[in-house]
Amino acid sequence: MPVRAWFPTLIYSAPLQLRGVSRFNDELADECRRIREHDAAGRRWSARNYHGGFTSYASMSRLHRSSSTFAALERKIDRHVARYVRRLEFDLRGRRIFMTDCWVNLMPERAAHGLHLHPLALISGTYYVRTPAGCAGLKFEDPRFDRFMAAPPRRSDADPKNRSHIVYPAVAGRVILFESWLRHEVAANPTPEERISVSFNYNWS
After folding, report:
1. Which of the following CATH numbers is that of domain 15-204: 1.20.1740.10, 3.40.50.720, 2.60.120.200, 2.60.120.620?
2. How many degrees, rounded to 5, is the angle at CA 109 between CA 103 and CA 111?
3. Bridge partners of 166?
4. pLDDT exceeds 80 at position 1
5. Torsions phi, psi for 4 (to 5 deg)
6. Could you tell me if 184 and 116 are in contact, meaning their C-beta atoms sit under 8 angstroms apart?
7. Model confidence pTM above 0.85
8. Distance of CA 125 to CAs 2, 29, 35, 47, 102, Å?
9. Beta-carbon-side half-sphere exposure of residue 199 (alpha carbons within 13 Å)
């Protein structure tokens, strides 16, 4: 074949577990809301930086170290990260990959999360706890976007792998993993119900 694809951007998406996810998500949702109630510093930071929503990113960002519920989530996500890392073919040179940060995000109607990446991390991801019908997914940007220069726009019917952006739907019980340098965003929540997710970073020792 005269044309071949090189330098792929790999994104991982899979159910966290095959059974019992509803009960686990109920526990997570209750704890996420309790964190918002008690995290005054997080509410202040969110009022300035996460308009309309709440995140514990700047206040309680190591929940897997302080909560048995989030520690259980860490153990479940670890298995997915191990599979993803094998697919990425990293040479870890005997070192291990571990969760460094874990925080909650609660997005009521009209709350959004602008385009960003996760500096100083290796693997990042999101686990969906509550996803009301019609809520925004996770939108990824082609990492070459700032180098397109004189390139024309893609056709509306272009193959997904040739598009400049791709959106992964937010589905409760599903985990999404990506390399931390990949820019992403969440559009404003158009639904009256709250969208709840847990975000996290991994690094290697």
Report:
1. 2.60.120.620
2. 50
3. 140
4. no
5. -130, 150
6. yes
7. yes
8. 35, 18, 20, 24, 10
9. 23
